[in-house]
Every structure is written in structure tokens, then in C-alpha cells.
What does this fold into?
Amino acid sequence: MENKKPNKTITPYIMFVFFTIGFLIMIYPLISRTYYDYRGNEAIDDFQEELADMPTVDLQEKLQLAYAYNNALLSGDERPLGDPFSEEEKEEGVADYAHLLEMNEKIGVLTIPRINTIFPVYAGVSEKVLQKGVGHMEGSSLPIGGLNTHSVLTAHRGLPENKLFTDLDKMQLDDLFFIETIAGQLAYKVIEIQVIEPTAIEELSIQQNKDLVTLLTCTPYMINSHRLIVLGERTKLPVKEQEKLTEISWWNRLLSLLSGYIWIVLVMLVMLLFIGRRIWKKIRGE
It folds into this structure.
């Protein structure tokens, strides 16, 4: 009886199928990041379109209420600050205060040129919010500018499916970031970067005659025992310079999403092409 020899034509096909499956599994985080970035773009467009269509009278009314809320914080009449990643803060729903700024569920847009990212900003710090974008910490000032204000914006770091504040540790002193709300687009310059204990909320308090915004996330990466805070103080820039800095190209955003995966993708693509070439040679009988 003859021994059946393995079909050498089929073997490369099997290798190709398994390799393709492995390739797709490995780049899943990149696919997911791209998806969430696309959804984030849609959310930003929704916010900006409604902002552009809002009657001036309604906009001014919302703005005055927001200023009143921020003034109330100075007298301690509003909810105190807490750690945004504690269990107590992960309640579902949107806080009532958010309706002062909210349009299509968003209260603003955060742009960080250093890490080539643009995020929709939502009210509150529920897990639902922190899975899809940047949350505004209730009890901190609304991000509309003005002296004696300190707004805190926070997001997750290290989620495989959504990049968010993963690269926040790349921020440097004197970097700029921008926040767009019903008050317009405001510029902030980084004046301090530090790591704090989750309970060190005094670092997030209002400072007299200062217009501040803190970007906050967990650190160290994937351990999350402390909090990384990037403190920005309001600054003014020429209009053309600000427009240039906030126009982040699709290419730079893509490179930002690829960060940490680009070499994996390149190596896997080369191997995929090599196996595909072998199969093609088999088909042609070479």
C-alpha cells in the first residue's frame, strides 16, 4: 500500500489562513482605536454643528448660567471634588450641571497638538463616559475660562480598544492644548506636570486669580496606582497661530493611533506578502 504524501499545494494555503487570522487578532487594538477615533470625529462634528446653529440669545443664556455655576464653586455651594476613578464616581447618567453647556451630549472639544489628538468632552466621569472620550469632573469649574476657575478633564489610559490619554505622559512644560465650548476656543499652556496620590485633591483646587485646566489620568501605565496631572494656565495666541496649531492632519492622527503597533504591522505585512508569494508560485506551477 502506498503512503499518501501530504499535499504540498494545500499546506501554504493553510499557513496563509492561520497567519491571516493571527494578523487580524494582533492588529485588533489598532482597528478598534481607528473605529473609536472615527466615532469621536462624528461626536465632535455634532457638537460644532449645533454650536454654529445655536441662536446667539440661547448661547448667551447658557453662558451666563455656566458663569453662575463657576461663581457658586467659590462659595463651596456645589459638589466637592473626588477621585474620578474611584467607585463612588462611576455612577451612570449625566449630572444636572452639565446641561448648562451640553449640546448633543457633549460639552466641548479638547485638542492636544503634542500627541496629535482631538477628543469630544462629555459631562461627568461615569465609566460609560470614560470608555468613549474625555470626562469633565463634576465639582470642578466648567471649562469656559475666567479668573478663579479650575476645570478638570480626565480620561482613561492604556485601554487596548481606545487610545484616549495613553500618551499624556509625553506632554512637556510650555506645551499648548485647546478647549472649545460655548465660550469659544480657549488656549492653555502647560505650567506643571506631576504625579500625585489619588486622594491629593488639593492639587485640583481653584487658585486665586488663575484660569486653570488640569488634564488627569491614571499612572503608571497599566498599574494605575497614582494620578498623572498636566496643569495648564490660560494664555492668548494670535488667531492664525491658534488655527494652525489646532488643525491636526489625518496623517498625524493616524501615526498617533499606530504608535506602539507600527513595527508589528510592518513585520506582519512583510510575512503575509512572503506567504502569499509562495502560494502564487504554487498556483502557477513554478
Residues 89-94 have pLDDT under 50 and may be disordered. DSSP finds seven helices and eight strands in the chain. The beta strands are 106-112, 117-123, 134-136, 149-154, 176-181, 184-196, 211-219, 226-235.
